Amino acid sequence: MSVLVYAESWGGSFRKSTYEAVSYASETAKLLRTDVIALTFGNESDDELLKLENYGANKVLTTSGIEKGDSKAATDLFSANCSDANMIIFPSTYTSKMIAPRLAAKLKAGMTSNVISTPSSVSPIEIKRKSFSGKAIENTKINTEKAIIILAPNAFGLVECNGSCKIQKIESANNTSVTINSQKVASGKISLAEAEIIVSAGRGLKGPENWEMIEELANLLGAATACSKPVSDIGWRPHSEHVGQTGIVVAPNLYIAVGISGAIQHLAGVNSSKIMVVINTDPEAPFFKSADYGIVGDAFEVIPKLIEEIKRIN
Amino acid sequence: MNIIVCISSVPDTTSKINFTDSGGKFDSDGVQFIINPYDEFGLTKAMMLKEANGGKVTVITAGDITIEPVIRKALAIGADEAIRINMTPQDSYSTAVEITNYLKNSPADLVITGRESIDYNGGAVGGMLAEMLDLPFINACNGLHISGDTAEITREIDGGIENISTNLPFVISGQKGLVQESELRIPNMRGIMQARTKPLQVIEPLDNVQLTISSGFEKPANKQDCKLVSSDNVADLVSLLRDEAKVI
Q1: Which residue of chain B has the CA closest to A105?
Q2: Full domain range(s) for residue A124
Q3: Across the interface, which of B37, B92, B162 has its CB nearest the CB of A245?
Q4: What is the CATH number of the domain that holds A233?
Q5: pTM value?
Q6: Which of B119, B131, B223 minimises the CB distance to A132?
């Protein structure tokens, strides 16, 4: 018996979503009275692999030669190394969402995604997940011997511990079905999926030349920048910044919306944020109904004041 | 090229979501249903591929007779034919098994699903289909170019994009970028008239397997009212965020 967790890395480094998944696996393993085994295939150094022990991994299985974009090869790797696992846990990443369903079909194991808490019961596994784009919380029972889950973004948090883990190199059969031609990962910028704070702006900013203050505010807060759909549609900001229903779904601790009215499609992508702040000239903007804090006012006055105040307290 | 587009009938984004039987089931009363927005990007891409390369676009969906208006809309947008698997989908696995049963007898060159449905947000049917059919699978796909038997595909990765090539047949789960929002097609009168007579085949499920059970829903706790801060006291907002919300 064990809990297996996928530890995803980029450029040889683990990200917060992986530490979160290992923390979750560790808390779940306590319920099941068993160990946490992490599985990696990202060419991490031993020093990097050992960081997983700080979140409760007891053993790390590691191999190389598999690309994250090759869901079939990755699925075969998991399948070959999970005979002992009752639960297989995936962090909230695009690659997880590519491997987990394949693995579920291969093992005929019940799978659920968007999970927000540890199991409320373990036999059978019963778990809460987000559904209806954050408008509901669903209780799901998994009726199979093995349960596969993908966590919701930023839903669980990190639980550090003083553990120790062993590293074990494993073999991987290499049945590639695809060729990876190139990868472009924005460097030096905080990715939206990982960001704890997001500063987002919409049409209220009147033009792309006015984003400097949004970027300055984001830099001061260590935040990522985002935008509403109309702004990405008219090309003021790149599509990769569009948060909302058809864009990226985010769940930061703090979401600051500047000059965004709060259309339901936008809210569907941000309503899992823990705290939402709205700055808008229109007191009737629907966003004020969902937000925790708000300022009715002109972004061009409010944002510079906000920047000044944050500089002052830093 | 024979393209299968898996579509899902989902509540319109603006719908209020309610549950019946003390939270046991989704209450569809008074809810307007639409083609899942992620599936619509895939359907539009399928139409473009057909127009460029020839072939046929078939939409397939699992559901009872009440979802037929959404199927007719897909036909009005331009799909050539439709398959409805006559079942109430219980989980991603049950849906994937039945679509696979169909595809094993009627193989496709390309299978397209949406990245996820906006109702249950499972995001699993595409990957499951690929495994059951032993095909390559790319999810969060935001670019697809096919020439002959090979395809260049871009997928979203966390904080970037990845460019992948593979050979037909394969499965993708698509999203915006596959086509742009401005390229989505609104059915015209001719399309709507034609859709009425296009073939819509109803098939029965064969396996009826289910691995997970949805055992109840609750609504997230209501948010407190928004605390308004005057634009003259921006410093107050900063202290609230630091001392009350503890997020900065």
Answers
A1: B128
A2: 2-169
A3: B37
A4: 3.40.50.1220
A5: 0.95
A6: B119
Query: Which conformational region is residue B231 in: left (phi greater than 0), alpha (psi within -120 to 50 degrees), or beta?
Result: alpha
Residue A294 lies in a domain: yes
Structural domain count of chain A: 2
Q: Which of A71, A136, A183 sits opposite B160 (nearest CB)?
A: A183
Q: B237 lies in a domain?
A: no
Q: What is the CATH number of the domain that holds B129?
A: 3.40.50.620
Whether A130 maps to a domain, the answer reads yes
Do A142 and A265 belong to one domain? no
Q: Are B129 and B96 in contact (CB under 8 A)?
A: yes
In angstroms, what separates the C-alpha of B71 from chain A's closest C-alpha? Answer: 21
> Which residue, among B101, B103, B131, would best test binding to A if mutated, counting the most A CBs under 10 Å from its CB?
B131
Are residue A212 and residue A147 in the same domain, yes or no?
no
The maximal CA–CA distance of chain A, rounded, in angstroms, is 61
Facing residue for B164 by CB, picked from A17, A178, A194: A178
Given this model, what pLDDT does residue A191 score?
A: 80
Please give the pLDDT value at position A187: 64
- Considering Cα of B18, then B23, then B28, then B33, what sign does the dihedral take? positive
Tell me which residue range forms the domain holding B25: 2-221
State pLDDT tens for residues A160-174: 999 999 999 999 877
Between CA B138 and CA B126 the distance in angstroms is 9
Does the pLDDT of residue A193 top 90, yes or no?
A: no
Tally of structural domains, chain B: 1
Q: How far apart are CA A19 and CA A46, in angstroms?
A: 16
Q: Which residues of A touch B35 (CB under 8 A)?
A: none
> Does position A175 have pLDDT exceeding 80, yes or no?
no
B118, part of any domain? yes
> In this structure, are A123 and A248 located in the same domain?
no
A243-271 b/e (C-beta count within 10 Å ≥ 16 → b): bbbbbbbbbbbbbbbbbbbbbbbbbbbbb
CB distance B218–A136 less than 8 Å? yes
The arithmetic mean of pLDDT across residues A55-60, rounded, is 98
A130 and A211 in a single domain? The answer is: no
- The conformational region for residue A270 under phi > 0 = left, psi -120 to 50 = alpha, else beta, is alpha
pLDDT digits (tens, 9 = 90+) for B155-178: 999 888 999 999 999 999 999 999
Q: How confident is the model at residue B221 (pLDDT cuts 50, 70, 90)?
A: confident
In a domain, A131, yes or no: yes
Which A-chain residues 203-262 have CB contacts (< 8 A) with chain B?
A: 221, 229, 233, 239, 242, 245-247, 253-254
Task: Count, in order, helices (H) and strands (E) of chain A.
Answer: 9, 18
Residue A183 lies in a domain: no
Residue A145 shares a structural domain with residue A234: no
Would you call B96 and A105 a contact, using CB atoms and an 8 Å cutoff?
yes
Is the minimum CB–CB distance between A268 and chain B shorter than 8 Å?
yes
pLDDT band at B131 (very low <50, low <70, confident <90, very high): very high
